[in-house]
Design a protein that fits this description.
The chain has 166 residues and is mainly β. The chain is 14% helix and 63% strand.
């Protein structure tokens, strides 16, 4: 009886080790990547002061992403001094068609140049398609927008964590 129990125990132990090794080989791998680059966009906003509904499209180039296009929608509330706080969603589409999804909070303040605001947006990556399916991370976009034309340009900087080996 002891010999049979010992053999069963040994067999179960070996099975556990083999299964664990197989699982480890297929485990999800995460890779944190730095994102640094530039963005350009044009906003076609609806202004119902003090509320602004943002509608924008643009493009950019960044490490990890390469060349990309972007589309964003959001809402901003302005105070009497022209300072706006808002929320938005963005889709970044890279050259192979994969899409990165993110949400943001932002702050816009007038600069010393009339009609130009500095915008700082803090994005949280919420996933995507293809290589970005289970992506997480965060990045910041800092840009200057010319209010009469809606044209803006700036920088993107942050981190994206990609998962692979599902």
């Amino acid at each position: 009886m002891k010999k049979t129990f010992g053999s069963i125990f040994l067999a179960l132990l070996l099975l556990t080790l083999v299964a664990g090794a197989a699982f480890a080989a297929t485990a999800v791998k995460e890779k944190m990547l730095d994102v640094t680059g530039t963005v350009q966009a044009v906003e076609n906003d609806e202004v119902y002061y003090p509320i602004i509904y943002l509608h924008g499209n643009g493009s950019g180039s960044a490490t990890v992403l390469g060349q990309f296009t972007l589309h964003f929608e959001g809402i901003v509330s302005n105070d009497a001094n022209g300072v706006g706080t808002g929320v938005e969603g963005v889709n970044l589409t890279v050259s192979n068609g994969d899409i990165l999804f993110a949400t943001a909070t932002g702050l816009g303040v007038p600069t010393t140049t009339p009609g130009v605001n500095k915008i700082v947006e803090k994005y949280t990556v919420t996933g995507g398609t293809g290589q970005f399916e289970s992506a997480t991370g965060d990045f910041t976009v800092e840009r200057l927008v010319t209010l009469p034309t809606g044209v803006s340009s700036g920088t993107i900087k942050g981190n994206i964590k990609l998962r692979s080996g599902k």
